[in-house]
Amino acid sequence: MPLETTVAAAKPAAAPASRTEARERAARNRRLSVNGARIAVLLAFLGLWELCARTEVVDPFNFSQPSRIWAQIWQWITHGTAQGPLGEQIGYTLYEALSGWVLGVTGGVLLGIALGRIRFLADVFGPYIKVLNAIPRIVLAPIFLIWFGLGPASKIASAVVLVFFPVFFNAFQGAREVDRNLVANARILGADNRKVTLQVVIPAATTWIFTSLHVSFGFALIGAIVGEYIGATKGLGLLVAAAQGTFNAAGVYAAMTILAVVALLTEGLLTFAEKKLFRWKPADSGDGR
Predict the structure, then answer these.
(1) How far apart are alpha carbons 223 and 236 in whole angstroms?
(2) pLDDT digits (tens, 9 = 90+) for 144-153
(3) CA–CA separation, 11 and 3 (whole Å)
(4) How high is the mean pLDDT of the chain?
(5) Fewer CB atoms near the end CB (10 Å): N or C, the chain?
(6) Is 220 helix (H, G, I), strand (E, B) or coil?
């Protein structure tokens, strides 16, 4: 075969590879740009806050300042808090939030799929669920405190009621939005109701369910923190309440910062798990449209 023919045949194979490399390079550059912009925005905000506090444009007693907040966090890390080591407080709050999240997600998914598949159950329980959803769930925290005491059970209950409803409604809608052609084809192949639910409905509703998981863990943290704030023996919510009781604004912001870091780490883990489970989904183009 002539050399020119061999080179010409190799060119079409090399072109897709070069396009793939170009897309990967563009995506990598965009991630770097986005992360750089995020860091720049954060540093600008913290710098402006510090400057305004030092020049007393804002009252540092009420608004504190980033340097004091970091000093408070470092003190908690090195010397612990009045309630015990900082790691123990974080672990206690995470235990309550994770327990409430798991229970709320499990109940929301099971009931959402069940009511989405069985119209009779949806017609019977629908009004009750709507009424319960209309109740401001934060106000239930004092009731749970009376029922279950100062221990973790009252905080877990608060987290459960905050997590349950967004997961339930997403699972319910996901079960209702399943492509009827898929269900019909499964029945033609001999699938009964159980197989249709397990092999068609639940996989199709997984995207809806995962969408609610990102939001619901934040709700679980809110439930645990609110319960601890009202009454507890340990936890980050108790740190917030203790700092507020002593007019320690830096302590309040320090606890909020720790909560934000915990929430971001958890969001990252959920995103990682979602990408692993949904590798078959096409990636976003990232063109900003």
Answers:
(1) 12
(2) 988 988 888 9
(3) 13
(4) 82
(5) C
(6) helix
